[in-house]
Amino acid sequence: MALLNFRSAKPAKPTGTLGSLLSDYSIEVMPRTAAKVEDFRALLPRSTRVYIAHIDGTPIDEMVATAKRISAEGFEVMPHFPARIIRDRATLADWIARYQGEAGVHQGLILAGGVPEPQGDFHSSMQLLETGLFDKAGFDRLHVAGHPEGNRDIDPAGGEDTVMEAARWKQDFSERTDAEMALVTQFAFEAEPVLAWGARLRDAGVTLPIHVGLAGPAKLQTLIKFAVACGVGPSLRVLQKRALDVSKLLLPYEPTDIATELAARKAADPAFPIEQVHLFPLGGIKSCAEWAATHGGTATLPAARAV
């Protein structure tokens, strides 16, 4: 006799501060990393939002196929829409239609993208939003980039004047759209810059929820490589200091310290705009998911095997 395959109901939200912060985490994959995962249901909670990063040069066919596959496994899929690699309005409309028609996508991360020069008509996330195409298509969730440590592409001389102006624009846009919005940050390694930025946003009247980017467990050399390539700001000093400590040099980095500090601030000030964390699995999706589960990330029991 075969047992019925089943999954447990979603567990109650953890009461601990770190577990509470991690209970609805999201995670980012690329088509090539997703292809290495046999079944995301074996690794991630069923509530997980899976972002699909669109790196310059990745064909839209691969992006849509990855979205379709992960969506079919039961996850909320949020593909990137990088303004600087989208050639024109017609291309944007085509991407939206394909994601919706082939993968049932109804949400997206709208960002400028990491290429230095625009390849077409768009150079910023705000221009993509202003087309009105996401609202017209009925997207119910639109996430945008936030920059706790500044962004040299936006403010080449340093500082954050333009970054803050963009945040205020995004706040205004959130009041003109029916879609839910949130600010998603690049990964950081130190809590204080993120917390100080969150306080400055609140003082400026920007109340969008913040999803803080954290790098998942990885070798120190891997993290430093990605951090430099992605323009991580002053919090990079945490890794540099760790690299000088011979006792820690060979140990994998884990984001437990920064996550604990963020969770403690949220517990002390529930109105603080940090809503959840967004994980970058730089050391692998499996190890990242295991770290999250160990520290309170909502877990789902695997399906029972037929016997």
UniProtKB/TrEMBL annotation:
Family annotation (InterPro entries): FAD-linked_oxidoreductase-like
One GO molecular-function entry: methylenetetrahydrofolate reductase [NAD(P)H] activity
Entry-linked Gene3D superfamilies: 3.20.20.220
EC code: 1.5.1.20
Record keywords, A-Z: Oxidoreductase
UniProt enzyme class: oxidoreductase
Highest taxon of source: Bacteria
Protein name: Methylenetetrahydrofolate reductase (NADPH)
